[in-house]
């Protein structure tokens, strides 16, 4: 929580929340309930640079902010919970830890199963009265297909951030 007193941390968190909102507008719809999204990568960056608590805040702000800027359906707090837990997951696996493909894969697998495939399916089934099992199977298959794509994207992003030595600039100066 001490990080929230650091102006650089707050500034970066705000920039990342804004970027996550923008990235949330870029999605590739596969069907009515299946789509490829990229906002979670920005939340993952927040988790790796700023830790789980700040990344959770970035996730919440990006979800609520995205709804107010360009709603794509009714507001549902379940998706806000998913966004917060996304920050928690990535922050837990990636914050203050050296770059590791194994750690990135573990974080992405946990996110994919717990949030993308399971929790978001629960929210969709609840919100739109969809059959849970059929929706879950379809989303699980799609998530499994997307998993290597997301791992590659996240690896490239985090490797680039590591090369820039961004963490030390934000926190230590």
From TrEMBL:
<dbReference type="InterPro" id="IPR030949">
    <property type="entry name" value="ECF_S_folate_fam"/>
</dbReference>
<dbReference type="Pfam" id="PF12822">
    <property type="entry name" value="ECF_trnsprt"/>
</dbReference>
<keyword id="KW-0812">Transmembrane</keyword>
<feature type="transmembrane region" description="Helical">
    <location>
        <begin position="136"/>
        <end position="158"/>
    </location>
</feature>
<keyword id="KW-0472">Membrane</keyword>
<feature type="transmembrane region" description="Helical">
    <location>
        <begin position="107"/>
        <end position="130"/>
    </location>
</feature>
<protein>
    <submittedName>
        <fullName>Folate family ECF transporter S component</fullName>
    </submittedName>
</protein>
<keyword id="KW-1133">Transmembrane helix</keyword>
<feature type="transmembrane region" description="Helical">
    <location>
        <begin position="38"/>
        <end position="69"/>
    </location>
</feature>
<feature type="transmembrane region" description="Helical">
    <location>
        <begin position="75"/>
        <end position="95"/>
    </location>
</feature>
<dbReference type="GO" id="GO:0022857">
    <property type="term" value="F:transmembrane transporter activity"/>
</dbReference>
<dbReference type="InterPro" id="IPR024529">
    <property type="entry name" value="ECF_trnsprt_substrate-spec"/>
</dbReference>
<feature type="transmembrane region" description="Helical">
    <location>
        <begin position="6"/>
        <end position="26"/>
    </location>
</feature>
